[in-house]
Design goal:
This protein is about 25% helix and about 25% strand. The protein is α+β, with helices and mostly antiparallel strands and about 375 residues long. It has two domains: about 210 residues; about 100 residues, no CATH class. It has an eight-stranded antiparallel β-sheet, covered by helices on one side. It has a six-stranded mixed β-sheet with strand order 10-15-16-3-17-18, sandwiched between helices. Strands 11, 12, 13 and 14 form a four-stranded antiparallel β-sheet that branches. One of its GO terms (molecular function) is ATP binding.
Amino acid sequence: MLTTLAVENYRSLRDLVLPLSGLTVVTGPNGSGKSSLYRALRLLAEASRNGAVAALALEGGLPSTLWAGPENGSHPGRRVQGTVRTKPVGLRLGFAGDEFGYALDLGLPVPTETMFNLDPEFKREAVWSGPVLRPAALLADRAGPSVRTRGSSGGWDPETFRIRLTDSMLSEFADPRACPELLVVRERIRSWRFYDHFRTDAAAPARQPRAGTRTFVLAHDGSDLASALQTIIEIGRASELASVVDAAFPGSRLAVEPLDGVLSLRFHQHGLLRPLSAAELSDGTLRFLLWVAALLTPRPPELLVLNEPETSLHPDLLPALAVLIATAAKETQLVVVSHASSLIRALAEVAEVGAVELEKENGETKLVEQGRLDRPSWHWPKR
């Protein structure tokens, strides 16, 4: 389980170190940095697939995502720093857990004759054992293009390996013979799952019939909803699925019907003479069923991150959603980003919740009432 998340210089997250629990709820007013925190987690996950550079490009490149304020933060009465930075440009992301920790440091390249001078480079990466980075706990250490690993004797392997500056060692160097722990960390990060604002418009993928295949993990766009629900039914969780649906929509039930290999959702609602297809469902009903398929997954990830799951749901559905989230938290670690106080209260009634409240002060995202001594222990690998 992850116990700490650290972000430095990503948008409004100038210097943030968060404690994580089995079920962490991140809340705060609009503009406090909740979405930035969600995107920072996604960016960290992309690094394990060598997608960090492309992900940053979609956000306008590294310069567009860096903290725009003074290097040491804004403070009332202090002279404002000029636009010239005095320290190397760096976007840092990392996490620590009971077993392993990982951190990366992305910076700009030394300018050369190329059109890709805005592509960030990996300046440092580190994987260590235990919850805190210490020199003796390092398992794999990357400085620039060079990667070194611990040998079986506990000392550093005399052979170093070279990779491209735009590649992560998680994706380009995960040799189980040289450092099996690096492979373990990579696969754990790659199992992280993110869901963010399912589409429910008339052309939404979840409303379209689709050829049926066993689906243990709902697609990010919900396009395989019928297959995912039928898979939940066939693995033996039909009664649990029926109970969730009845709690949210009393007297209602779900069915999946095949026609020439294509699976179609049928929603039997109390008081109606015929079932409704996915195309006929209200936005809120369809969105809730998507959360059902996502949270009752037969293949739980190491970490499941939900961004504002309450969106477009009627307040009466939030207690049922809270029970769904609490049920999923028994099998996987969850981070829920939400500004719905009713959902947060409902979660606190059915599960043990680690609440993290964000606020913005002088443009910088901070944890409410977190002092220096309250922060989890964290150290960045130095350049």
